[in-house]
Design brief:
CATH architecture of chain A: 2-Layer Sandwich
CATH superfamily of chain B: Histidine kinase-like ATPase, C-terminal domain
Low-confidence stretches of chain A: none
Radius of gyration of chain B: 17 Å
Structural class of chain B: alpha+beta
Low-confidence stretches of chain B: none
Largest sheet of chain A: 6 strands, mixed
Number of domains of chain B: 1
Strand order of the largest sheet of chain A: 1-2-3-4-5-6
CATH architecture of chain B: 2-Layer Sandwich
Oligomer: heterodimer
Strand content of chain A: 25-35%
CATH class of chain A: Alpha Beta
Strand order of the largest sheet of chain B: 1-4-5-7-6
Number of helices of chain A: 4
Mean pLDDT of chain B: 91
Order of helices and strands of chain A: HEEEHEHEHE
Distance between the termini of chain B: 42 Å
Largest interface: A-B, 26 and 30 residues
Shape of chain B: globular
Strand content of chain B: 25-35%
Structural class of chain A: alpha/beta
Number of strands of chain A: 6
Radius of gyration of chain A: 15 Å
Helix content of chain B: 40-55%
Mean pLDDT of chain A: 90
Number of domains of chain A: 1
Chain lengths: 134, 182
């Protein structure tokens, strides 16, 4: 049936690449299964964090069904508001059951607040975190 | 005396570097943040302090966007106000907005709950809320004041001024020390 093909195509696109340019209040996002690049970077203070992160959560949900052998998810956030913090935790929950998952949490040298935030997230999920400065 | 000069003098004597009164939206929030960032960069502020000030500003501004109750009174519209002060030893992020009195009790309880906690207590409360919370219809996570207190490292100063039978003016003042060692 024609509509079934459409749905399959849509899933294919969704599984492929999610690429969002960063703005002054939303982060840059690249989720690319083929090249194994998954990164959220910049600042995150959108007006509606639930809506903004929905495509990310949807992408991860599809990816989790057939993930790469290993997955490194990179967070390189300069600022994020509290509503984004909640959604970042939701992203981590969604990643939790993927085999071979690892998070790389970047923070500016001497940015103790972002470093601490990463440590606190790492205590809330069963995912190995690697901390890096940039 | 000319009120412009008066206002200018008041701003100088209160060490205010940014004053905005009017409508608050995500768009104005972004503009205010851009202005404040330029100001902080111009002052060659330490990046860690800059980030803290920026964080407190974001939470404060988004609180106004979400919870401000604009009140019309005759010809006037009582809108919210946002101020940033810089003194040699600290930044002060201040806001004020009209608020329906029925919301006062819950707001006061939230702030008092935050203000009795020390650093570890705030960390625990943040962790409890973030695990439990769902984003409200207004887009808040219920973490704003806890986060402000953590970034500030001091108590949140606040109060309510009487505006009318139903409306209070809620003001909030958050200090961020410019001394990194504190």
């Amino acid at each position: 049936m024609f509509p079934a093909i459409k749905v399959a195509e849509l899933n294919c696109i969704r599984m492929d690449i999610l690429n969002l340019e960063g703005t002054e209040d939303t982060p840059k996002i690249i989720l690319d299964k083929k090249n194994g690049i998954m990164e959220i970077s910049g600042r995150s203070l959108p007006e509606d964090s639930t809506e903004f992160y929905k495509p990310v959560l949807d992408w991860i949900e599809s990816y989790a069904k057939d993930p790469n052998p290993t997955t490194t998810f990179v967070f390189k956030l300069e600022y994020f508001n509290t509503a984004s913090a909640k959604l970042i935790l939701d992203v981590l929950y969604a990643l939790e059951d993927i085999r071979g998952i690892k998070v790389e949490w970047y923070f500016h040298d001497e940015d103790e607040d972002t470093e601490e935030a990463g440590q606190e997230f790492s205590e809330l999920v069963e995912i190995p975190f690697e901390f890096k400065t940039y | 005396m000319n009120f412009i000069y008066e206002l200018h003098r008041t701003m100088m004597s209160q060490n205010l570097v940014l004053v905005y009164q009017g409508q608050f939206t995500q768009e104005t929030t972004k503009s205010i943040l851009t202005l404040a960032e330029r100001n902080l960069e111009g002052a060659e502020e330490d990046p860690a302090i800059k980030r803290k000030v920026f964080n407190v500003m974001v939470e404060s501004l988004q609180n106004i966007v979400k919870h401000n109750d604009d009140v019309a009174e005759g010809m006037h519209r009582h809108q919210a106000i946002f101020l940033v002060g810089r003194e040699p030893d600290r930044y002060t992020i201040m806001s004020g907005n009209p608020l329906h009195k029925r919301k006062k009790g819950a707001l006061q309880a939230t702030l008092d709950r935050v203000n009795v906690l020390d650093k570890e207590g705030l960390k625990d409360l943040y962790r409890d809320i973030i695990q439990d919370t769902t984003i409200s219809e207004k887009g808040g996570a219920g973490l704003g004041f806890v986060d402000m207190a953590r970034k500030s490292g001091e108590k949140l100063h606040y109060g309510f001024a009487e505006m009318s039978k139903d409306i209070s003016f809620f003001w909030l003042k958050v200090n961020v020390s410019r001394d990194q060692s504190s």
